[in-house]
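Morning!

As promised:
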Amino acid sequence: METTGLHMVLAVFTGMVAMVTLHVAIWRRSPSPYPRLGRLGWLALGGVGVSVLVNGLLTRFNSHDLCVVVWIDALVVACYFFVYAGVARSVSVTLLSDLLRCRGQSLDVETLVNAYTASSRFEDRIEHMRRVGLLQVSGDTVTLTSKGLALSRGIRMLSALTCSQLRG
Amino acid sequence: MPGELLEAGSIVVAALASLTVLHVGYLACTRTQRTPTSWRTSAVLLAGLVVAGSLLVWARLASISLSVKVGAVCLFLAGCLCYLELRSLLSRGYSFRILLDLMSREEGATLAHLQSGYGNGVGVRGLLARRLKTLARLRLLHLRGNQAGPLTPLGALVAVTGSLMRRALRMERVG
């Protein structure tokens, strides 16, 4: 079969629709306050696999086209992760959503800040870091684990290398 | 055929490496100045580098098939997004900041201390105030004195999209 760009578009579309559909279905079935990026990574790999399979079936596994499909998938997956990071973790999106509920009215900054700090979001974040083994919580005291310390050192080194300054 | 792909791949890697070196190099050179690089200058510079890089990848692959050229530009843009996400995490990562705060306190800290001392004493309240200022600067909301809001049309669009996606994924209690 003669390969055309249409095969690739169809393959990428099918794979990415499969990824998003599974993502929404799984997340809806088992809700969690944690981002579960590892699980999403596996879903993304699955989506790329579907794209490769569809393209392979349409082009009799032409290695050239398969490679291009994977490259295009890489962009779609990177965009998806970029948006998902904002949805799952962004404090700014939370503030905007809170203001959206005011339906065009302004809100006292103090009220907005109080509503945020009164929620369990900070504790949830600490709990998530404890679950992934970065922190240790004993009683009311939080300390870094060796894994957390190594990551902190890595962050500091990477920040210096890329001339980044943590301002957030 | 594999030669074509290898050539395209190596050009993409070289373009990404150049973009990173140029961007970091610029930031390193301007870091010592009294006035730090504004977010606008940094964003314009990065956008310019991304556009220039995409054009360079396209031009360097002039003799290669269209599908490989499109794929190579997509791969380059994916790399740019990863770089952007990394920079965003390193400059605004909430959890990263908590880790660094704890790194400076070997004996650990209580939750209340972590919250009030977040970001070298800025506190979570300070973080939220800073985020509101950034949102106002990006023209997503109006901020007058102690009053936040209403949202601009762009801010409303971002808020509606974010809320809908959070609802679809049943992640209302995040962020």
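Residues 37 and 81 of chain A are 9 Å apart (CA to CA).

Hope this helps with the figure draft.
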